[in-house]
Amino acid sequence: MPDRIAVIALGGNAITTASRTFSSQYEAVRAAARGIANLAKKYRLVVTHGNGPQVGDALLRNERAAHLVPPLPLHACVAETQGMLGAMIQAALSERLGRDAKIASLVTKVEVSTKDPALGNPSKPVGPTYAKRDLEALGTFPFREVSPGKYRRVVPSPDPVSVLEAGAVKKLVDSDFIVIACGGGGVPVTCGMSFVDAVIDKDLASERLATAIGASLFVSLTDVEGVYMDFWGRRRLLKKASADEMKKLLAAGEFEEGSMEPKVRAAVRFAENTGGKAVIASLRKTAQAASLQSGTVIYR
Fold it and tell me: How far apart are CA 88 and CA 85, in angstroms?
């Protein structure tokens, strides 16, 4: 087996579909698994994933059926969708690598601080986009305009402190397992193990995990080619940048909050914390991204 560990983070938007049915999303996951499975020859793999569209749908189902069954809190919707998407990814990888492949999916908890100011400032987009006329019929949590005339529900998104199952992930990786973890950023808990009604950004949580287990490569796969300057204008793709350069762009507010901003922040943290390289790239170019031939490469 290879010695190097790579953490591959799948964006929730990159593995969802317009219809958002289970079967269509599973087909999207199967397509993503092709590129990831090919990396198993070069790296010990940990796969993480987002759940923004899926947890938003889960909240909507709970709200619409509240008169029939007690609705679940946000953290329970995170756990539900983490398990569902983890099962999809595990099955899709098994299909590519064979039934005897060693693959484990963990429902992961991630510690957050009760003093994190983000808990009082909902900013993380979840679920589908809506027109303004649709908002009055929808339930809890506020909405934010994410593009002209398009709105998404936003929820609190505190900064992850640590991944509680990091030790278990490392033991499984060292035993030649491909591990699926930190789904949807993990289920947020406090140090006293109380659940928190929030969604943790999967890239920030993935960086905490990647650093904790000694990964040498961190790849964030999404639905765009990489990191762009002036995304809503001329769109200039950054192919390579230092962590210091990206920190200056973060401070200038160059990247969209709750979308590209946390991906860049996670990549910068990984490069600074480990000396390894982080890549933000398109899901369609997984192999090229892992070889540092596509997307945006961020280094210390």
Answer: 5
**CB contact at 8 A, 217 and 297:** no
Active site residues: 12-13, 124, 202, 263
Q: How far apart are CA 83 and CA 80, in angstroms?
A: 5
Residue 278 contacts residue 271 (beta carbons within 8 Å):
yes
pLDDT tens digits, 269-284: 999 999 999 999 999 9
Q: What is the pLDDT, as a whole number, of residue 123? A: 83
Whole-number Cα distances in Å, 120 to 141, 154, 237, 267: 12, 12, 34, 25
| CA–CA separation, 110 and 117 (whole Å) | 17
pLDDT tens, residue by residue, 116-163 = 999 999 888 887 788 888 887 776 678 888 888 999 888 899 999 999
Which helix H or strand E contains 44, and what residues bound it? strand 44-49
In the sheet with 5-10, reading across from the earlier edge strand, the strands are 103-105, 178-180, 44-49, 5-10, 217-222, 277-282, 296-299, 240-242
d(Cα 75, Cα 105) in Å, to the nearest integer?
18
Tell me the DSSP string of 119-149. Answer: GGS--EEEEEEE-GGGGGG--SS-EEEEETT
| Alpha carbon distance 184, 16 (integer Å) | 13
CA distance 79 to 51: 10
**How far is the C-alpha of 266 from the C-alpha of 270, rounded, in Å?**
6
Burial (Cβ within 10 Å: 0-12, 13-18, ≥19) of residue 219: buried
Phi, psi of 150 (to 5 degrees): -120, 135
Whole-angstrom distance, CA of residue 16 vs CA of residue 181? 18
